[in-house]
Amino acid sequence: MASLLTDPLFEISGVGRPPNKNFYYFSVTKKGVIWRWWKISLRAVDRYSRPGEVKESHQDFLDDSWMQSEVSVVFGHRILLYTKALCHGHYDYLDHLSDSLLLRIINYLELEDVEQLGQTSHRFRQLCGSEQFWEQAVRKCCNTVSDEVASLALEVGWRRIFFTSKLQLQKLISQRAAGQQGPVPTFRFGSSH
What we know:
It comes from Cynoglossus semilaevis (Tongue sole). The protein has 2 domains: 2-96, no CATH class; 99-177, Up-down Bundle (Monooxygenase), CATH 1.20.1280. The protein contains 10 helices and 4 strands; from the N terminus they run ββββαααααααααα. The chain has helices at 58-63, 65-75, 77-87, 99-106, 111-117, 122-128, 131-141, 147-156, 158-162, 166-177, and strands spanning 10-15, 23-28, 32-38, 52-57. The chain has a 4-stranded antiparallel beta sheet with strand order 1-2-3-4.
């Protein structure tokens, strides 16, 4: 599993909280942490300030209350807790898997579980709502997907196709073939597919 981990394990950058305008960068690598800062000031006295950098091992970071305080102030307490967990060796392997592999895994979940997974993080919300996921879901629940349905899905989206009954799909495809464009009706999950 360790081979799945890429370097850096985590990185974040941003501007300090007002009135601070300094720019900060924090990174957790496999071997340690890197804290960088660039002083941004309109004062002439600070014009020639150089950027700063501190590199520490994981253990040194865990013992360094000053750097932990800086990370917490700039990026928040949740980021501090997450990076401390990384330094302790508690890795989130799912974060390091490719989207295509995660989509294959998600495809085995029940729809209710997919909805809950989508609420856990921004990345999972994007994956669980993606056209690729819904295309997989349609292809999984239907033995075959006709070219007409696939073409319609490109227009209205695979999620909408998933929640539309077969009868309504046939009606929509025939309207489309006749040149009539009407609204795509949607039905709750469990209607005849």
